[in-house]
Amino acid sequence: MQQSQPLLTGEDGRDVEDSTVNTGIDYDLWQKDMGTPLRGSRIHGLQILALQCYQITKHYIQDSILTRRFLISILPQYLQPGGLKAPPDLRSTAYLDALRGYAAWVVVNHHFYWTNHYLKLPFIDFFHSGRAMVDIFFIISGYVLSHNLLQKTREKREQNLLKSLASSTFRRYIRLYFSAGFAALVSMLLTCVGALKYDLVAWQGSFFVQLADWLKDMLRFSNPFADVKGYYYGQQTLNSRYHPYLWTIPAEFRGSMVVFVFCLACCKLSTTHRTIACWLLIALCYLWDAAYVALFMFGVHLAERSLNKPAPETSSPSPEIEQLQLEVGAHAEKVRWRRSRLGTGGRYLVAIIALVVGVFLCSQPHNLGKKGPNPWPVLSKAVPSWWHGGDQGREHFWLSIAAALIVWALETCPPLQRPFNWGFSQYVGKLSFGLYVMHLLVVRSFWDGPLNQLRSWLGNGQKSYCFTYVIFMLLVFWAADYFTRVDRHIIAFGRWLERKTFT
């Protein structure tokens, strides 16, 4: 027998069903939220109206919160509340992430199509020297990839070292080529809608034919055994037809494998012998015209060198020991402190000089400055004559040295690292890969389109360039932010695949 609905008594004495069918009110939810029982009590018409308003307001607030969270989530991080705050626990190598991000920004400037006499002056041209920034990318990669491996090598944790080597080697191809493939896929989709027009890629007339062409291009581009010389040698660069700036990815993958093999081959050597082997390989790479590999190995050397730094003291000595030190070695401590201060000051001075020299060398003219002002004609004669690729390949002799000086200076002088640990710098570092791969798409879709028309309307002067540059960079950061979100999922996929397949 069906049980009847419980009834409430209205103001006029008639029975009113206690149900959401008549009033639209969930009395159980009201009682749970407000702690006020309603069953069996007398409800006035105003009470029913109040209850309905309460439920509608609650649902509206919940929907508003969800809508607000969604709207905030689709904004780039630099527009989100607190989006530019630095993480509370920065790693010791966090400054390298920011350096890589700013280097990617310089690459964006390098492709910005803004010619000005003042921008070609020494030191100022550094902010447009995209060629040298690629060399900085390779040094940072060598440092980051080897740091953890070298630390485990020093601690004689062979089993953990083998596990880390297997994990890094297994995931490296996915991390590089899957992300690069996604960037080329975005380029293909923009080509389909007519937003991008390259000389090397034409509209195939059908989306599926275009997709098949993209897959064919990716199969060719992702061949890890193909020639990786790239722009270092001027011609026959290995890149994607849908994204010409991906030429660094094959070189990045090959250099990563060299780092892993070196760490494995030299894990039984002492620190001194491993350092000698590293510098020997760097010298041979310059003789073999493989500067990009030398840059990776210089990053390995910097990582090895960073492990020589003493660990920070976590606790102060006891009062008895302090008193003993004061009584026995007060004078010796004072002398040692003075020598330490002089030594630290001297290292910082050398690091600053190296930074200035490195920045200056990054201003090297495109033709090596053979007919330019001094010292470029003299420096051009020091480039090995057996290097291939003409001036475009040989320019990396001094640019690679410049990149090494810059990263070494920052590693040697911690005060120089502080601006790179700021919140905005860390945000730029987080978007480094996205800035590098997405700026071309923004250039070909917005800068060559609407922003070009806006620049012409404003007069094509310096003010119009500055104004459109700000808009352009905001769009680049927005696109890079979205790409970074996808890139994080690609990295997570690699880790998931490792967990599912490793035994």
From TrEMBL:
Residues 1-20 are annotated as: Disordered. The chain crosses the membrane at residues 132-150, 176-196, 245-267, 279-303, 345-362, 427-447, 467-484. Keywords: Acyltransferase, Membrane, Transferase, Transmembrane, Transmembrane helix. GO terms for molecular function: acyltransferase activity, transferring groups other than amino-acyl groups. It comes from the Eukaryota. Pfam families: Acyl_transf_3. The keyword Transmembrane applies. InterPro entries: Acyl_transf_3_dom (IPR002656), Acyltransferase_3 (IPR050879). Residues 94-478 form the Acyltransferase domain. Coiled coil: none annotated. This is Acyltransferase family-domain-containing protein. It comes from Exophiala viscosa. The lineage of its organism: Eukaryota, Fungi, Dikarya, Ascomycota, Pezizomycotina.
